[in-house]
Batch of 2 targets.
Target 1
Amino acid sequence: MSLSVSRRLAAVTAFAVAGLFASAAPAALAAPTAVAAAPTPPDIPLANVKAHLSQFSTIAANNGGNRAHGRAGYKASIDYVKAKLDAAGFTTTLQTFTSSGATGYNLIADWPGGDPNSVLMAGAHLDSVSSGAGINDNGSGSAAVLETALAVSRAGLQPTKHLRFGWWGAEELGLIGSKYYVNNLPTAERAKFAGYLNFDMIGSPNPGYFVYDDDPTIEQTFKNYFSGIGVPTEIETEGDGRSDHASFKNVGIPVGGLFTGASNTKTSAQAQKWGGTAGQAFDRCYHSSCDNTANISDTALDRNSDAAAYAVWTLGASTPVPPGPSFENTADVNIPDSPAAAVSSPITVSGVAGNAPATTKVDVNIVHTYRGDLVVDLVAPDGTVYNLHNRSGGSADNIVGSYTVNASSEVANGVWNLRVRDTAAQDIGYINSWKITF
Ligand code: DTR
Ligand code: CA
Ligand code: ZN
Ligand code: ZN
């Protein structure tokens, strides 16, 4: 693995800024225009979201036990969502396609108004697998996006961007519906997209709180929400590209999203920070007949529904501060056991004018079997030491997290080091990667 300087990030951020926040045509990397302060995002009523899940459950029960592509249960699900949106003043379009010899449906709902050259879209796949009702996968995402759209209508929101919502068919067959939608978007229409937000499995019964680490501005927006409610998040790694955001990302549209986990197992460190059961899958009923209305964490569904609304309001209606340039070192560095000397992973920063900000962000990914052994420091180019972790966490595994450091007295350019020392015998590990964002 090599040192990678995320110049792409600066370019993407500039594009995202141009796309998400400027009134000029997205193609021009215009500076963000001043916009009125964003209206306050609403709380999405959990009861409303669960009422949609109950409807999806009834639809499955009345149609052979599932809501899969090509089955009556899927079409009934689309009809339910469309009727709600039509009644709420959306302009809806039913897009048909054929897959595996059956007719598939995408539902697109446009909220009238906003800059037609800057589209912010939120979406979820509506189909289930054939083995069950698909309440978490993906009734949860579909219901949250539906209720967010209905909240836009209730608020009579007049966002800066043009808001669009989508419910995809045949995701379980391989992102078929979202691919069909994107592939049939003229290039000029694709260029109008400021971003696509994906919600696939956001109510897992043993939940994790994962944020897609694709577009940094969208990622930061979701992280801002969760840090505002005191819930730590992790980068989504279970399935890069395994949901409908991949269809949009593949054509260069900035994407982001939320995920609460599928068949991967929750670690003890994750159970410590999120609760739930370590050693158990985030969703034991993934793609199973037990993915029913009992297969939902109300807390996770509520938090993620509110986060979806927060992102639509924030990204659609105002100009959040995009993250600055970041630099990353992904080279593995072994951490020898105590009493060995500390080891360091260097990052050479260049091209950043002035001093580091008071909110310098350090993302750390250390694999270790006993985080309580470790002392982790950020060492500035002039040798100043900023302690990030000082032996907390006991026997839990790994240190994966973000730290905010007031490094405003440090010149940004120069060689920064992440320094790690193992201070107790037994248990070893390595620095997997780290990133500094100004
Ligand atoms: N592909 C989704 C489930 C899934 C698995 N990993 C991820 C990561 C991000 C979003 C979704 C998923 C499905 O089975 O529908
Ligand atoms: Ca809520
Ligand atoms: Zn699935
Ligand atoms: Zn899914």
Note: The radius of gyration is 22 Å.
Target 2
Amino acid sequence: MKVRTNLLKDVKNHYLRELEKVYGKKEALSLLNIIIEDFFGLTKTGQILEKDFRLNETELLKIHFAVKELKKEKPVQYITGKAEFYGLNLKVNENVLIPRPETEELIENIKNELSSSAIKKIIDLGTGSGCIALALKKVFPQADVTAVDISENALKIAMENAAINNLKIRFEQKDMLNTDELNSLETFDLIVSNPPYVTEADKDKMQNNVLKYEPHAALFVDDNNPLIFYKSISEFAKSNLNTGGQIWFEINEKYGNDVKGLLEEKGFKNVNIVKDLFGKDRFVKGKR
Ligand code: GLN
């Protein structure tokens, strides 16, 4: 099937029919609106108003290839290279997870709980795109924020995101599972992490776009040791969290009580599970 003319309206209708087969009408339209806005700077309304907008050959090809990727269920954020998080415009690629709305809730919870005057030093472990570290720097501008990741490629993106958003944070390439490496860092008033927490057993509930394209190292843990990152980070926090400081985790909804137990075992106080907007156990916090 060929595109009838090179008028944006016709091109859009053509690709809408292609995408509908995979996504249904509503989502197909929304995905097309996103890529057209990104490629040609035309908002949703602009696309309707600019009735005579025509695409040249290069522009047509750009849409053609983007739609081809979308049909293979590639997340649109990896096509545009952009994602929004807590009001920040972030760059993303397949080396980092696309920031999730739950993680915005994590920031909001921390913001509501902690007074900015008490927080001087913050560390985010497993920063990926840098979303948590950068959002916290925005919320607590006076704090020194350190962002840690094992992946050099992820750190590259996180550094670009700091520059794009004009936020100054420090980056460290370290392995969260290596307690000696972590313990060599100084002490902090807030330790936060959204580590890999999806088990093999959860895989069949996951969507193709996540499974096929997002970095598995950032998502998955071994079914036999699903709390491996939490164990290592809480051990680090035992020695590197200042008195009066807090530790916050994003968690797999299945393990609320286990992570809570783990923090209590390590001697943290006021350990609580916090639910997300869907009523699922999603965060665990503790104090020292
Ligand atoms: N919430 C993410 C998902 O469901 C997982 C994030 C993580 O593993 N830390 O895809």
Note: The pocket of glutamine is lined by residues 100, 194-198, 210, 219 (CB under 6 Å).
